[in-house]
Amino acid sequence: MERRTIGAAALAVGAVGLGCMPMSWAYTTSRQRGDESLRAVHQALDLGSTLLDTADMYGPFTNELLVGRALKERRADAFVSTKVGLLVGEQHIVANGRPGYVKRACDASLRRLQTDVIDLYQLHRADPEIPVEETWGAMADLVRAGKVRALGLCAVGARGGRRSGTRLHDTTLRQLQRVQQVFPVSAVEAELSVWSPEALETLLPWCEARGIGFLAAMPLGNGFLTGTLTPGEGFEPDDMRARHPRFTAEMMASNQPIVAGLRRVAARHGEDVTPAQVALAWVLAQGRHVVPVPGTKRERWVTENAGAERVRLTAEDLAELSGLPGAQGSWD
What is the chain's percent helix, strand, coil content, to nearest 5? Predict the structure, then answer.
């Protein structure tokens, strides 16, 4: 697989990564199988999808434990990204950016991941009670201690709470400007897909101008862009899509023209090319520093996603995808 670089340190990863969250958290608990997920991780590494993206809050903790089982055997094959800064309670999630906590959390992640160094340590969310520079300074200390190789920041997904007149990533850009004064940012992780292209407006250009890697989260639109979900089929209560404004039966039906557009482009590239691969190829085409991180827990989808790297979209394809209707959600 093609290799892409992340940040000024030129950390090399496969062009398509693997989001590990669905293996342990947020999606259909009844379909989660540890051994099946472990095979998916090994398949990703075999195919060159070396970036494994996890977080201590996924589970919580169980996702890192699962990834650690694979790393115990194949640490040299993998690029490990994990996150810190969010604590999961019974019915809520809270931020904790206190320097002491960050350092303890890193040590705990290292134990669960069965490794002595984390390739990319990301701040999941800034703590509103702690200056972000203090949190970032503690993370920089971890780099100097040899426990972490590079630092990243996850974008604030403030779609629902955005103030009138502000852009989606204004808060994230302000945070980036502040922490960049403390220690270099190597990567930013944010949602980017055919139906959520907002990062193209300001966030991705900001990263590109500074040589910062961009990890595209949810590049398949939480599964919608694969064309495998049926409107009205429903989701299990613990599946985050059961509460997502774009996944009501009405909105899924309304957004079918987006999937239809992906199917049209896929058909031009051969009967073996899928809508999901076209959606990932679109993300890959947004810049050499962009790495999509589709989440899955099955070998089949890992293989399909990795194959997107071979799909070369034409100018005609990109123009058609750019002209697709905007996604609709119940917030609209």
Answer: 45, 15, 40
Which tokens is 27 given?
A: 């999606």
- Banded pLDDT at 27 (limits 50, 70, 90): low
Dihedral sign (CA 111, 183, 18, 234): positive
Q: Which of 266, 256, 258 is nearest to 307 (CA)?
A: 266
Query: What are the residues facing 56 on neighbouring strands?
Result: none
pLDDT value for 162: 44
Count other C-beta atoms under 10 Å from residue 323's C-beta: 8
Percent of the chain with pLDDT over 70: 94
Encoded tokens for 93: 């999630």
Its sign, for the CA torsion 122, 127, 128, 132, is: negative
Q: If you compute the radius of gyration of the chain from its CA atoms, what whole number of angstroms results?
A: 19
pTM: 0.94
Say if CB 11 and CB 151 are below 8 A apart.
Answer: no
| Active site residues per annotation | 58
Say whether pLDDT at 158 is over 80. Answer: no
Residue 163 has pLDDT above 50, yes or no: no
The burial of 91, by beta-carbon neighbours within 10 Å (0-12 exposed, 13-18 middle, 19 or more buried), is given as exposed
Structure tokens at 117: 């160094």
SS3 at position 1:
coil
CB crowding 212-251: b at 16 or more within 10 Å, else e? bbbbbbbbbbbbbbbbebebeeebeeebebeebebbbeeb
Q: What is the pLDDT of residue 34?
A: 79
**Nearest alpha carbon to residue 53 among 74, 83, 27:** 83
Within its chain, how far is the Cα of 114 from the centroid?
22
Contacts 24+ apart (CB under 8 A), 316-320: 317/265, 317/268, 317/278, 318/282, 318/285, 320/261, 320/264, 320/265
CA–CA gap between residue 226 and residue 224 (Å, rounded): 5
Judge contact between 74 and 42, C-beta under 8 A.
yes
Q: With 60 as the cut, is the pLDDT of residue 160 above it?
A: no
